[in-house]
Design a protein that fits this description.
Order of helices and strands: EEEEEEHEHHHHHH
Largest sheet: 3 strands, antiparallel
Helix content: 40-55%
Bound molecules: zinc ion
Number of domains: 2
Strand order of the largest sheet: 2-1-7
Shape: globular
Strand content: 5-15%
């Protein structure tokens, strides 16, 4: 393990130190899914928010990074939040609209992670209600002026089974570099496929 690829993140509650892979601008190997989540061996799963490995406190990584502290092998990695922890953070914190968008995006990913792990999307009482509410609020937070936000809106519609609306949004996306992604989403819509899909290159 190359220690210099890591930075130190300190829990604001108990002070425990964690190591975190420094985000790279260019990844050599990665997988991208239709909900926008990227997986890579060069990337930690917790990127914006994390749960402390010692006390379980949830916090924003940016506010807790310690650039001048040396990384050691014994430090645990940051843990991604559970669905309940995302819901708790959305309830408890005074947050900006941008922060809410990040938390809601990642909450959508956390539900889809269950599908990616071949598990049912809804496990606990209240899951489906939380999922549906999150989809509606996230949809309204996304800025329609931005093409990637429009792609995500189409994805939210597709996952909710609103296939006509998803198709309508996608049909207006003309950017050449997104043609491959658009075709794969259109194909999923054609087969009334609601689950998150992995994009092919
Ligand atoms: Zn802690």
């Amino acid at each position: 393990m190359m220690i210099k690829e890591f930075q130190v993140v300190e829990c604001p509650n108990c002070g425990a130190h964690h190591k975190m892979r420094k985000p790279k601008t260019k990844l050599k190997s990665y997988e991208i899914y239709s909900d926008g989540k990227t997986f890579s061996p060069e990337l930690d799963e917790a990127l914006e928010v994390a749960a402390c490995a010692a006390c379980g406190e949830c916090f924003w990584i940016e506010d807790a990074s310690l650039p001048k502290v040396e990384v050691t092998e014994e430090m645990p990695s940051l843990k991604p939040l559970t669905i309940a922890q995302y819901a708790g953070m959305l309830d408890a914190e005074v947050i900006t609209t941008d922060e809410e968008e990040i938390l809601r995006m990642e909450l959508l990913w956390a539900f889809n992670d269950r599908v990616r792990a071949d598990k049912p999307m809804f496990e606990n009482e209240g899951d489906e209600e939380l999922w549906a509410q999150n989809m509606t609020i996230l949809y309204n937070l996304l800025d329609s002026a931005d093409v990637y936000s429009r792609l995500l809106k189409a994805e939210i519609d597709r996952e909710r089974g609103e296939f006509d609306r998803a198709e309508e949004i996608l049909s207006k996306i003309k950017e050449g570099q997104l043609a491959g992604i658009k075709n794969q989403l259109m194909n999923a819509i054609k087969y009334k496929e609601r689950e998150v899909v992995k994009f092919n290159e």
